[in-house]
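Cross-check.
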Amino acid sequence: MTVLLIAGLDSSTGAGLARDLAVLADFGVTARLAATAVTAQDAGGGCCVHPMPAAMVAAQIRAAGPVLAAKLGMLVNADIVAAIADTLPDLPFVLDPVLATSAGAELLDAAGRAAMIARLIPRAALVTPNLPEAAILTGLTADAPLQDLATAFFVMGAKAVLLKGGHADGPEAVDWLHRPNHLPLRFAAPRKPGTRRGTGCTLATAIAAQLALGKDLIKACDHAKRYLSAWW
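Predicted model, tokenized:
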């Protein structure tokens, strides 16, 4: 079982490809990699980004060989998004729309966001935004009704969207899986104190691993949510 990871390299190893690799190892799933950027990140929130040439990203995807699923994270810019869209085979992938670091450093520029909306969101098996990311991508507010946020993603062509509740309030962190013509499904876990980097990477990669292992989307989201809660 092999998953292609397309994301940036976080020098702190708290997120990005290093975190993704650790998740796949926990599930006994083999990884193939396509690095979109090298970043220098520190505990104080500083971040320096060096994008990979788009042609190199495409070459890495082609060299990966057969895989069963993919997880897309940090995509940096429109050229890299286009390279991925042109090269990625027709397979189930989880798109984690990484827009910024936890400290607010930009990881996908405006043109890249537009390209992602046009070329990757309609192809993804699942899109996994947190509420601030959902607001930016849809043009709504982070406290808009979840169904409105989901509907905006469906207008973009999304097949399914998991709206993550880590930035909401309450004793539980609740994620809602929305699919056209289906009732939303709730995945909850006790809210943990403080914050931890890499939670979005961890959840999306765990879902991709479960898809590669043959689970359907609902079971994949449920297993990944429980895995994330235990990891925290």
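The two ends are 25 Å apart (CA to CA). DSSP finds eight helices and nine strands in the chain. Passed to J.P. for a second look.
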